[in-house]
Amino acid sequence: KVVTVDVKGSAPLWMKIKDLADGVTYNFRIRAKTLTYGPEIEANITTGPGEGAPGPPGEPFISRYGSALTLHWSNGDPGRAPITRYVIEARPSDEGLWDILIKDIPKEVTSYTLNLDTLREGVTYDFRVIAVNDYGYGSPSAPSPSISGW
């Protein structure tokens, strides 16, 4: 499959690729164009956590107090290096694509509180937690029970 993306100005220089199978190696080729196309750069990328990355944290559970949600989780296997931070991903329950919600949660923390205003009204969400170490992102936790935005 070939995808051409026209990047202008201060647009992000990354791309989220959907529908890749876990544990499969994909070949990616990139080349830039100013007046003409430059040389191509090629890399084989295997999806999923790298060797030495952390295992999944415990399944998050959610407590709700007024206009705030708190996600709680337990530590998993740190892998070959200490955990350096956590990431929380969220998705609407009726969609398959996870998006990073919070990306720099300190390693000592096993809960995070967010305001319901950050979620869309009337939408039900799933959350999951990912541990990160010097080897990369680990496997995600199981999804939380679904919860409604407001």
From TrEMBL:
Pfam families: fn3 (PF00041). InterPro entries: FN3_dom, FN3_sf, Ig-like_fold, Striated_Muscle_Regulatory. Keywords: Repeat. Residues 53-150 form the Fibronectin type-III domain. It comes from the Eukaryota. PANTHER family: NEURONAL IGCAM-RELATED, TITIN. This is Fibronectin type-III domain-containing protein. It comes from Cirrhinus mrigala (Mrigala).
